[in-house]
UniProtKB/TrEMBL annotation:
The gene is narI. Keywords: Cell membrane, Electron transport, Heme, Iron, Membrane, Metal-binding, Nitrate assimilation, Oxidoreductase, Transmembrane, Transmembrane helix, Transport. It is a multi-pass membrane protein. Residues 6-225 form the NarG-like domain. This is Respiratory nitrate reductase subunit gamma. The chain crosses the membrane at residues 6-26, 47-72, 92-111, 131-150, 190-216. It comes from Pseudonocardia yunnanensis. It holds the Pfam family Nitrate_red_gam. It is found in: Cell membrane.
């Protein structure tokens, strides 16, 4: 274990978390009006209807796959009768399909953004950088999925990357486990950390927003009468 390993796998993850959390708080406090995807459906909808579902559903499956692979220990899946070979086969099939859908959907969205004038003009420099890092993360993820399906100790991320990832939550990073993983998994992990560090400063921040207020607001908001009691806000009930 070298000093570089300590910096990359023992220090950098926590730096990334500080940037992610701090940047998100800063963005919410000082840029509420910019906390949006800056919807561009008005300018072009044909490609958007194809690319957006492909990307969003694909990335959802990718996220679920990462949660299962990184957080659930191998002993748990073995306890329910899922062999290690069976796990890697289903991870390869589902992960490969989801990764390809995500990459194709993102490619369509990038093509649309580049070729539609008003949409391209609304793209910030941070968003352009985000697209580059996002594409790199997806490509690297597909590569590691292919390597993981091949098996072997070097490419079994559940014996290296997963223990390291879980150790971060108890503030005792298992640097040695991550250090012995293959180069492809290290590159994918570094790109992933870069993506999360950029997250608060791009349009991806909208993923942290849930329209909870819509569950409680009335279907129709009436204007109050002039004079008398002060006007109520739309979500307040009439006593």
């Amino acid at each position: 274990m070298t000093l570089l390993d300590v910096m990359l796998w023992g220090v950098l993850p926590y730096v990334m978390v500080v940037v992610l959390v701090g940047g998100t708080i800063w963005r919410y406090r000082y840029d509420k009006f910019g906390w949006t995807t800056r919807s561009s459906e008005l300018y072009e909808s044909r490609l958007l209807r194809i690319g957006s579902p492909l990307f969003h559903f694909g990335i959802l499956v990718v996220v679920i796959g990462h949660v299962i692979g990184l957080l659930i220990p191998e002993s748990w899946t073995s306890a329910i009768g899922l062999t290690e070979q069976g796990y890697h086969v289903q991870a390869f099939v589902l992960g490969g399909i989801a990764g390809i859908c995500t990459l194709v959907g993102l490619g369509i969205l990038i093509y649309r953004r580049r070729t539609t004038g008003p949409v391209f003009r609304a793209t910030t420099r941070n968003d352009k950088l985000m697209y580059v890092v996002l594409v790199a993360a997806i490509v690297a993820g597909l590569a590691t999925t292919l390597l993981g399906a091949g098996g072997g100790e070097e490419h079994n991320y559940r014996d290296s990357v997963s223990p390291w990832f879980r150790s971060l939550f108890v503030l005792q990073p298992d640097i040695e486990s991550m250090a012995r993983s293959s180069l492809a998994f290290k590159i994918h992990t570094l790109i992933g950390m870069a993506l999360f560090a950029l997250w608060p400063f791009t349009r991806l921040v909208h993923a942290f927003t849930a329209p909870i207020g819509y569950l409680f607001r009335p279907y129709i908001v009436y204007r109050s009468r002039t004079g008398g009691r002060p006007p109520r806000r739309g979500w307040e009930r009439v006593s």
